[in-house]
Amino acid sequence: MVVALPNPTTQSHTSAYHTAIEQYNRATQNLSIDDNILDYMRYPRREFTVNFPVRRDDGQTEMFTGYRVHHSTVLGPSKGGIRYSTGVTLDEVRALAMWMTWKCALVNIPYGGAKGGVVVDPKTLSQRELENLTRRYASELIPLISPHSDIPAPDMGTNSQVMAWIMDTYSMTVGYSVPAIVTGKPIIIGGSEGRTEATGRGVIITMMEALKQMGQSSRSGTTVAIQGFGNVGSNAASFAYEMGFTIVAVSDVMGGIYNPRGLDIPDLLEHVQATGTVMDFRGSENINNEELLRMKCDVLIPAAMENQITEDNADHVQAQLIVEGANGPTTPEADDILNDRGIFVVPDILANSGGVIVSYFEWVQDLQAFSWDKDEVFRQLQRIIVRAYDETQSNAEKFNVDMRMGAQMTAIQRVADAMKVRGFYP
Ligand code: GLU
């Protein structure tokens, strides 16, 4: 027995790692998987911590800490985003890496799971400092990443420009251009059409599948509240608006807005562009993030971060359907409350998988040096995510569990089956 392994039992109930391990324990209860494989999948395969200096614009250097965790490489190279946030901890990255493993397995793409993060508020850095930080972090990761071993992508606090710097740093180091080293890059250097919209679009596709299952057919009669207006939340809002749904509330880190008659999303995007926040949008009432979660609406889309729906507020959620755009927004304790109240949840590893699905398309296009058009990308995204939804639903029915357990059980079984045929080395 290795003593220094991460110990989830010492985690507080609001830690993402507690949530990830508790979900794993629940999901594996009714699966007949060999105990050795069960134990193996519980732990991250490797964990990397780096402390590195970044030169600030005033000439001084400052030390930063970053991580990259590979949870699993059983189904293929590890895949997952890089997050820049002051909330980043090794435990958070462990949880997010584990969720990537289940997410990729669930949608049946040939990847394991990874995640990375740097403890930094990117808003406090100038563009040059952000580039310095990214290039130095990328160079620290070089022993771990490659197009055939571990492929990073954007996450909270990072974007296509950050991916371009990582691609360039890696390429300059090896001496030739390697587009397939990251996904979510600008199209001009090998990014894919549709990657920016992919996660938000996938959220709304799974929302529509759930509404169909619940027998709700009127789009304009369906009210939607979205927590978070970053890449996931804003693209989910745009696609839902385009599809004819009524978006009554959205929020960002500063706060939220509410309009029972529905928000004009194209106008709101312009407002955000001009002011940097959704707040004070004309014709709407300002609210806070907690009020958004308790809002009267049909669908609630948490698209911000972990641990938002907890035992403290799950009793007050009024939506009948929750579609998880964020990773880990609902704690296991909140899941129990939502289940008792009959609230239907489309879990994160299914609802937000559109991002990594189109990342996979981007990687395939890069490796083949052949690009697809947007229609093709969206058609294949729809096919894969709906197939995963159907598999989740039928396993949820078969095992008489909720959608989260249906999704986790499907994914974990797939990794276990692959591990069984691969066998333990040596
Ligand atoms: N960061 C995204 C996620 O949590 C995308 C990961 C990827 O595309 O590799 O799913």
Characterize this entry briefly.
The protein is of the alpha/beta class and about 425 residues long.
Write up what this structure looks like.
α4 packs across α5 and α6 (195-213) packs parallel to α13. With 426 residues, this protein is of the alpha/beta class. Mean pLDDT is 96; it is low at 1-5. Among the domains are: 44-179, Leucine Dehydrogenase, chain A, domain 1 (Rossmann fold), CATH 3.40.50; 197-351, NAD(P)-binding Rossmann-like Domain (Rossmann fold, 3-Layer(aba) Sandwich). It has a seven-stranded mixed beta sheet. α7 (231-242) links the parallel β6 (223-227) and β7. It is 44% helix and 17% strand. Bound molecules: glutamic acid. Glutamic acid (GLU) binds at residues 79-81, 153, 155, 183, 327, 352, 355-356, 359.
How confident overall, as mean pLDDT? 96
> What is the CATH homologous superfamily assignment of the domain at 197-351?
NAD(P)-binding Rossmann-like Domain
Q: Under the CATH scheme, which class of the domain at 197-351? A: Alpha Beta
CATH fold-level topology of the domain at 197-351: Rossmann fold
Under the CATH scheme, which architecture of the domain at 197-351 would be assigned? 3-Layer(aba) Sandwich
Uncertain spans, ≥5 residues at pLDDT below 50? 1-5
What percent of residues are in strands?
A: 15-25%
Q: What structural class do helix, strand and pairing data support?
A: alpha/beta
